[in-house]
Amino acid sequence: MRLILQLLANGLVNGALYAMLAVGFGLVWRSLRVFHVAFGGLFVASAYCFHTLVMRVGLHPAPAFLGTLIFAGFTGWLCEIGLYRPFARKGAASSAVLIASLGAFVAMENFIALAFGNKLQTVSRGLARAIHIGPVILTEIQLLQLVVGFGTIGLLWVLVCHLRTFKALWAMGDQPELIPVLGLPVHKLRALVLVLSTVMAAVPASLICLDIGTDPHVGMSYLLISAVAVLVGGANSYAGWVVGGVALAVMQSLAVWKFSSRWMDLVTFGLLVTMLVFRRNGLVDPQRRVEEPA
Fold first, then answer.
1. What pLDDT does residue 261 have?
2. What integer best gives the mean pLDDT of the chain?
3. Of the given ranges (9-13, 108-112, 131-135), which has the lowest mean pLDDT?
4. pLDDT digits 0-9 by tens, 232-262
């Protein structure tokens, strides 16, 4: 019983990270209807920015974290104006945008590998203090990941629910043609979506780098986790993205217990296939009006 509780606690910690990634990926899908493959490259770039600020510049992890968020916001903005906006202006097909996004991901991954090498990069730190919570043991970094993860998700949800600008971001995915009619700046809103998405990737990227390090080739794995969490939870549900991320993390944790870490990707694909077969709209399916298509 104690082992199961420990595995569930570890899954919950990873779930906080996966949920942030799902929210970051889901924002672009929900608002722009773009399958944001470049998200994986931006995740890796943010992790290496954090590593560089700590290990090469010599900053404390706290200011390095803030610097990484600023860098992430800037790269997200560049991704919009340099990659997605030209295709949006020309009304390009979604397949063309997908291929361009994939190309951006490959370019970022290879550039980082050339600049930093292919080896695992870690952040030097002392031993993390273990904290006992009943029968469960978590490290200080795990508690930080848990608190920052769900805190960030909660803060963004409050903004989406109460601020007009963030409500407009959510509405863009349903009726984008109404945004200019309402006098809202379409291009600024699109840029804000990419900035928020990349910042949501930078938070777990920094925390994961601080904990276990990073390498140039982890982007595809975390991109897969983000996309599957969104599809499992429900492509149009913020709460579903969070539920999908946590569910995926818990299942991976239990798979490691029964099998090995090499089965984690199989668990991810298996959960995706199961959901597509038995519940295509995800675990959390928002209520639709009768006249809306399924």
1. 65
2. 87
3. 131-135
4. 888 888 899 999 999 999 888 887 776 766 6
- 264-278 helix and 219-233 helix, angle to the nearest 10 degrees: 30
pTM over 0.85: yes
Residue 182 Rama label (left phi>0; alpha psi -120 to 50; beta): alpha
Question: pLDDT digit string (tens) for 25-43?
Answer: 999 998 898 999 999 999 9
Phi, psi of 286 (to 5 degrees): -60, 145
Name the nearest CA neighbour of 75 among 32, 51, 39, 100.
Answer: 39
Burial 100-134 (b: 16+ CB within 10 A, else e): bbeebbbebbeebeeebeeeebebeeeeeeeeeee
Rounded distance between C-alpha atoms, residue 61 and residue 47, angstroms: 12
Rounded Cα distance between 257 and 134, Å, is 21
Q: What would you measure as the largest C-alpha separation in the chain, in angstroms?
A: 59
Per-residue pLDDT for 15 more than 60?
yes
Asked whether 169 and 193 are in contact (CB, 8 A), the reply is yes
What domains, with CATH codes, occur in the chain?
2-278 (1.10.3470)
Distant-in-sequence, close-in-space partners of 183: CB < 8 Å, separation ≥ 6: none
